[in-house]
Structure formats: C-alpha cells, structure tokens
Amino acid sequence: MAETKETALMEKVVSLCKRRGFVFQSSEIYGGINGFWDYGPLGAELKRNVKELWWTTMTRLREDVAGLEATIIMHPQIWKASGHVDTFSDPMSDCLLTRKRFRSDQIDPQSGIAYHYSGAKDPSSGVECNDPYAVLLPAGKPPESARRTATQFYLQRGLQSVELLGERTEKVENSQRFNPDNGSLLTEPRPFNLMFKTYIGPVADESNVAYLRPETAQAIFAQFKNVAETSRQKVPFGIAQVGKAFRNEVTPRNFTFRSREFEQMELEFFIKPDEAIEAIHGSVATPSGPGHPGEPQANWGWQLWHQYWVEERIRFYEGIGLPRTTLEEYWQKPEELAHYARACVDILFKFPFGTQELEGIAARSDFDLSQHQRCSGKPMSVFDEELKMAWPKLAPEKQAAISEGYFTHRQRYLTKTGETPEKAERTAREDAANLAKGYYVPHVIEPSAGVDRLILALLTNAFTEEESVDEKGRKEIRTVLRFHPRVAPVKVGIFPLLKNKPDLVARAIEVRDMLRPHFNVFHDEAGSIGRRYARQDEAGTPFGVTIDFDTLGEKPELLNTVTVRHRDDGKQERVPMSELLAWLQARIR
RNA sequence: GCGGGCGUAGCUUAGUGGUAAAGCUCCAGCCUUCCAAGCUGGUCAUGAGGGUUCGAUUCCCUUCGCCCGCUCCA
Questions:
Q1: Which of A386, A388, A479, A572 is the most exposed place for a label (fewest CB within 10 A)?
Q2: What nucleotides of chain B have any atom within 7 angstroms of a protein Cβ?
Q3: Burial A424-445 (b: 16+ CB within 10 A, else e)
C-alpha cells in the first residue's frame, strides 16, 4: 500500500532526524511535550541557512523590502484589530452523535420537546452505559424518532443492543444545546482559544492579559508607519520579518509540520490601490497569462503583484532544492477565502503524509492597515506625490468614476466592520476625497511561509536510500540527504586519509582552518575513510575534502592538491589547495 | 476533543513475575594509502507515576508521548 510506504518513509526521516541531530522532541527527558520540537546541531544549521537565504533573497537582494524584528508579545489590542481575539476564542460544541463541531453561539436556536435518557442497558449481556443523553424533537414529531437517535448514540458507546433507561421529556425554548441537523445533544460549550495567553506583570488577572503572537504579520502592520518613514521607502515596498509564532493547535500532527510553537517568514508587500494606479497611469495592468510577469512595473495592479509574488516564491523554493514537480499551486476558491482576501494561493509540497501547504500568498486588500487605523485611531495612509500630481490632469468623468469605485470599496469595508450606514458613508466619502489629494491606505500582498514545514520539506525531499552490497556480500543501505549545497548544514567534510599519520592530520587541520571562516565545515579523522564519507552523506554534506599522501608530495605534480568528493555520485576530482576556497564557493553559492 | 495502535540503549529488534540480550551506531586504543574493513575495550535502555507482589520491564490503573483515522486548521 502506498500509504504504509509513505508512513515508513516518514518514520525513517523522523528516526534519522533524531539519530543525526536534526530534530529532537522538546523536553524529551520529561516525556516530551505535545506539539513542540527542538532542532539539534545539524537542524539548527539547516534552519539558520534557510532563514538567511530567505532574508537575503527578500531584503538584501531587493531595493524595495525593509526588515523588521518585533516582539512576540504585543499590545492585546493588536489581536482585537486583527480579528484573532474574536475568531480564536469561540465557544465550541460538538455533536455527541456525529461529532460535528459548532460555534456554540451561532447555532440556530431550537425549540421543541427534549427527550432525556439517563443511560441505556444491553438486555442480552446486562452491560450498562450511564452516560446521559438527550434528543430534541420539534413539536409534533413522534417520540420513536428520538428513541432511534438515542439508540444510535448508545450503540456507538459499545452496547450491542439497547434498552433506553430513564426517559423523561422537557419542553425547550430557543436552546443552542442541540444539533439543528439531527436533534442530538451537544457537548457543553467549551472555549476554544487558539492563542496562547499570558499575563504581563506579576498579578495574573484579566486586566493584564496578553497573547503570544499567532502570526508575525500583525507587527508589520502595527509598525508600518515607522518603517515607511525610517526606511525612506515609498509604496510599493515591503516589510519582511522572520520570527516565532504560537498557536494552540487542536491537533499537532505530522512531526514538525503542525507545531504549537513555530517560526514564520513573512513579507507584507504594500502596493497602491488599483484606483491610484488608474489615476496615475490611466489604466491598471493585469496578468496577460500564467507564469512570472517579469520585473515589477509601475502600472501593475494588485493581481499582477500577487502573481509576481507567487512566482517569486516558487523560484525561491526551486533555488533551495525543491523541484517544481514536488510543488503545487492551489488557488483558493472564492468561498474558501477569508472575508478580507481577494485571492490566496497556497504553495503546496508533496510531503510523504500528503500534499500540504508550505506558504500562502494572500492578496489582503487594505483590510489590515484599515483595521489598525480604525482601532488605534492613528492614520495608516500614505501620501503619494505622483497621485496628487496626476489627479488634476484627469478628465472630470474619469475622476468621478475612480472616486466612486474607491468610495464603494471603502464603504463596503466600513460596513462590514459594523459601522452605522451613515458613518460608513461619511468616512468612505472622506477617504475618496483624500484619494484625490494623494492619500490612501496601501493594499497588501502577503507571502507567508512556515520555516519549520519548509525544513521538513527539505528533509523529506533530500532523503534517499541506496542499497548496495559490500565486499563480503552483505546488503547495506546507505542513507544520503541530497540537500542543495545552499541549505546543507555542513558544507564540507575534511578528512586526513589516515589518522595515525601526523602530517596528514596537520594538513587537514590547516584546510579546516582555512575554510572555517567561510563555511560550516566538519573535520573527521575517526574510522576508515569510507565510513567518514558515509557519515557525511547521511548529514547531507555536499563535499568531502581528503588530504592524502599526494597532498604531501608523494607524486610531486600533485603536491598541495586535495581530493574533493561529491556527495551525490561519489565522483572525485583533484583541486589545488590554493583554489579550494574559490572552487567550493562557486559550487555552494 | 473522540476512536484505534504503539512505547526495552542513539537506531533496529530480542526476552522474562527473579542478574535485561544482540546487531548496527557512538567513544577510546591499535591498525588502515579513498567509499560503513579488522582487532581490543568501553558508554548507553524497559516513557513517567501509582497499585498488586517477597520481588514488576512483564499483571492492573493513571498519565505522558508517538503513529493512524475523525475533528480543527484565521
């Protein structure tokens, strides 16, 4: 079965992660703690490489992205504004029969006759189940229907046949305790807070509640104005951040894939509203087809920016060794989108346990900044010189059309937030008037990636096993992690051919010290050379450098050269020590 | 949160109501002129807590963790 094979692969990866020091269970000596994982020596290097590559790609190699590193605990109002407090702390009830889950406060109130049971008995075996249960029937329905449902419930509890006990009825008005679909009793409403809660200061009471951030993004929005001013960036530009986030997941699963403490790499890329683009450039450029749209252009609308970032991110993944064939793009359907999102593309990776999300690239309109503007009372709009200059040159009917479009968009947003129609209309009119003066709240494209799931993707993608037969005819399995050199935790293994020849060891240490400032290298002199190669293969080290007697001049023409061995095919070549650093740099970049 | 399975060294497995075994790995020494060679020695385990028992890794209970399915996933 494909599934058991995949599970076996996953188990091998997990086992290797522990054996070689990529990932350990958090707090293992105390029995572990569900949903938390530590990175060991190799994992820490791997993760550091991935985050650095992301940071370099997203900020240093670009003109238009600035960095930020914000705190994990922020003002609790941030999570009010973002919507996390409300959507994360709903009381939930489960149907006792079907296990379907409901928001307790959103259940259509039900009225009718409730049939209560104190339990049930299996008349053949005498076994009893004393779990109380109830079914709500609309007035006029025969009691048989309730008994059938209740019988089903007790059958699920392990009774072979069911004799209901203690039936009594009760008139019920507007109750949210029953499943509207089948009348079954629900569990007591249980709070379902997916944010980790803490208290600021020594006294733990409700006045000083704070939350560990469930995403890094909100800090970017909250600091938008500060960054915009200090970075001397102008829209379109982005703010990038890498950092820990925390979610009290219902079910942490699949090794590190869904953890309760995890790390995100998020970019919020702020763009002009399409109305501003239209005013400045006369029209809004939209995608002409699939694929990368090329270098950003001033007249791009949000759709092109969105597509641009999807393609940029896929290129990034390809660049660190995830082949295009292991990735999938999933365009969320309109009904799956969060209410504020205009579009969202998930970049999925084919994990052994299924094709799962690595990153989501959402076009979030101006929702986030608008929320913070509204909740903090601080303006989040920017001034756009180009827009101000362009506006007066527009034909009056064009001005009116753009204004009206912007007004409608703002009004729709404000209405959704619960503003009164009058206030929504008035504020939206003001916003439209400000647009004409060059002011707007930027829209945003959000590529948001999970570091830990990317690490897991890199690990499962790199994992290969090669079966071979040694000279004594024994079958052996060599495990090789075929990491892209860019992410490999150790770049170079350095080996004196023999341990008991001081000259070889001394030269090896010389090579190690020469390379050490540039890469993570590992000197190993223990065991046969083949064993040392194999050990590094398992760690994913792309290059091995061996110092042998020719390095010392046994063959004069090979003096001061070393053997470089390639991890993936075992091929070797001879490289002069003087060129070694450049040789390696060219292949690791 | 619900249901099922599992838990013995770093890994893979053995075994027993009475001293917990092996292979691989790892470490040390010797040896070794390019792919897990050999020799010698060594470290390391019954997930945790409780109960039954003279004695529990084994039986029972609880708990924690892992895996699978359901549920959830802003």
A1: A572
A2: 1-2, 7, 10-12, 25-28, 30-37, 47-48, 64-74
A3: bbebbeebbebbbebbbbbbbb
How many helices (H) and strands (E) chain A has is answered by 18, 29
Cβ neighbour number for residue A296 with a 10 Å cutoff: 17
Whether residue A455 contacts residue A469, with contact meaning beta carbons closer than 8 Å, is answered with no
Q: How far is the CA of A228 from the C1' of B33 (A)?
A: 63
For residues A481 and A451, the answer to whether their CB atoms sit within 8 Å is no
> Which regions of A542-589 does DSSP assign to beta strands (E)?
543-547, 561-566, 572-576
Torsion angle (degrees, nearest 10) of CA A102, A104, A107, A110: 120
CA torsion A264-A269-A274-A278 (nearest 10°) is -160
- Residue A121's contacts (CB-CB under 8 Å, 6 or more residues apart) are A127, A128, A129, A159, A162, A163, A165
How far apart CA A71 and CA A84 sit, in angstroms, is: 17
Q: For tokens 């489960």, name the residue.
A: A94
Query: Which helix or strand (DSSP H or E) is residue A276 part of?
Result: helix A274-281
Specify the nucleotide whose C1' lies closest to residue A354 (CA). B68
Prediction pTM value: 0.88
Protein residue with the closest CA to the C1' atom of nucleotide B68: A7
**Which has the closest alpha carbon to A238: A446, A462, A515?**
A446
- Strand ranges of the sheet holding A492-496, from the earlier edge strand across to the other edge: A521-523, A492-496, A543-547, A561-566, A572-576
Question: Separation of CA A44 and C1' B16 in angstroms?
Answer: 42
pLDDT tens-place string over residues A240-254: 999 999 988 878 888
CA of A257: nearest nucleotide by C1' is B73
